[in-house]
Design brief:
heterodimer, A: 169 residues, mainly beta, 5-stranded mixed sheet, 4-stranded antiparallel sheet, globular, B: 269 residues, 11-stranded mixed sheet, 5-stranded antiparallel sheet, 2 helices, 20 strands
């Protein structure tokens, strides 16, 4: 009974702290003659492939007269599922392209851009497309909400490096 | 004279898609999906043996009908006709689907003069004066063909996809600019605005030049004119159907040949 207590407290504490999602996306350093930063889209899909949340869209936002939007279609999965329905830039979601390295992203349940996900099975998708480069999509399946802390990961091979997804109840 | 010959060859290519396996008419855009309102596409159109490799005749741009998503007709920019292909540019500022078509309608005649076989293509108004009085074995047929492709900015859809009710036409069930490998794509074929049932439909992956075989995929429309393909590999696909009937608009023509061709881009998953 005494051993059960901390666990019970743990469960009691859960509803107080909002569930969150910590994501690390690695953009690998590529030794190529002509390097451009990749366009990256991160989103959450339901089992029927509809988009539950757009989490990040990194593209060339600084180009004159929105010229950077020309290449958004190259993130073709995202474009088909969601991008083509959006008006760019997306508030709190879209931003400038990022350099090679590890990028930390934190999302909280109930707050944009994650919002409130209904309990269920989802996939987190990271899609990268690079000018004069390649294209890669990585998927991480997860259940929401997490009943206990969950550490999930995927490893890209070309345009994406290590991707980790930590879910906290 | 040369012009007449080219026309006749084009007509033959259009109305005999199966008999003359060699010649296929096509229109192919540089891309079918664009994501900015100042995007342009550039388009090639030709009649050739290998798909999307111009090596025979240029398509005639006077047959070009471009419909914007709002239903208005738009003109091509920088139209040009060369030895083997015609080309033009097209700005696509509107959200929705643009329909880019080569629409061909006219009469086609075969006849014999002094033992020599002749052929002619033209309009109903020119028929009487075009064929000599001493011509024998005059066979006149009417033809209606549509060779088209689609380009979408933003979400597919819009007024351009509405059928005109003339000849063979494709109506989307799956949007024509929403095709990916491994997912079933369904369309409907209409003949004069009504479901074209029980018609053979052929799809060929456009990169025939890099294969030893045509690798034709065939299917049949159902009673509602609907047909489906699941494309295994990404690429520009040439989708074709044709039929014959006696619903001619000119009394001299006993037979009508109708053909439809679409270039559809299938993207990888």
């Amino acid at each position: 009974m005494r051993r059960m207590l901390p666990l019970a407290l743990c469960f009691l504490a859960a509803p107080v702290a909002a569930a969150d999602m910590n994501l690390t996306v690695e953009i690998p350093t590529l030794k190529v003659a002509e390097y451009h930063r990749p366009y990256v889209a991160v989103w959450v899909e339901r089992e029927d492939h509809t988009v539950a949340a757009n989490l990040a869209v990194w593209y060339d936002v600084k180009k004159a007269s929105g010229e950077g939007t020309k290449w958004l279609k190259d993130m073709r999965q995202w474009w088909r599922r969601s991008g083509r329905d959006q008006t760019m830039p997306i508030d709190g979601v879209s931003g400038a392209t990022r350099p090679a390295g590890q990028h930390q992203l934190r999302f909280t349940d109930g707050k944009p851009p994650l919002g409130t996900l209904a309990p269920g099975h989802y996939e987190l998708i990271v899609e990268a497309a690079r000018e004069v480069g390649g294209h890669e999509t990585q998927r991480i399946a997860f259940d929401w909400p997490a009943k206990a802390p969950v550490h999930l990961s995927a490893k890209g091979t070309d345009e994406l490096g290590q991707i980790t997804l930590d879910l906290n109840p | 004279m040369k012009h007449v010959f080219v026309r006749a060859a084009l007509a033959a290519a259009l109305i005999l898609p199966f008999a003359a396996q060699a010649h296929k008419m096509w229109i192919v855009p540089s891309t079918t999906v664009v994501s900015s309102d100042d995007a342009w596409v550039t388009v090639d159109a030709a009649v050739s043996n290998d798909l999307y490799y111009p090596d025979h005749f240029p398509a005639q741009l006077d047959q070009l009908v471009i419909t914007a998503p709002d239903g208005t007709q738009v003109k091509p920019e920088n139209p040009w006709t060369g030895k083997y292909r015609s080309a033009f540019d097209l700005p696509v500022p509107q959200k929705g689907t643009y329909r880019i078509a080569l629409v061909n309608q006219g009469l086609f005649a075969n006849y014999e003069v002094d033992g020599q076989k002749k052929r002619w293509r033209g309009s109903a108004a020119d028929l009487k004066t075009a064929i000599p009085a001493n011509a024998k074995d005059v066979k006149v047929s009417e033809m209606a063909s549509r060779v088209e492709t689609f380009v979408t900015q933003g979400k597919p859809g819009g007024a351009a996809l509405k059928p005109t009710g003339k000849g063979l036409e494709l109506v989307p069930v799956t949007q024509p600019n929403d095709l990916v490998t491994g997912e079933k794509a369904t369309f409907q074929l209409l003949l004069d605005g009504k479901p074209a049932g029980n018609l053979k439909v052929t799809a060929i992956d456009g990169a025939t030049r890099y294969r030893n075989a045509q690798d034709e995929m065939d299917t049949q429309t159902d009673k509602d004119g609907k047909f489906s393909f699941t494309f295994a590999t990404p690429g520009m696909y040439w989708v074709n159907a044709s039929t014959e009937d006696d619903k001619t608009s000119t009394k001299e023509a006993k037979q009508r040949r109708v053909a439809y061709t679409a270039t559809l881009e299938v993207l990888p998953q």
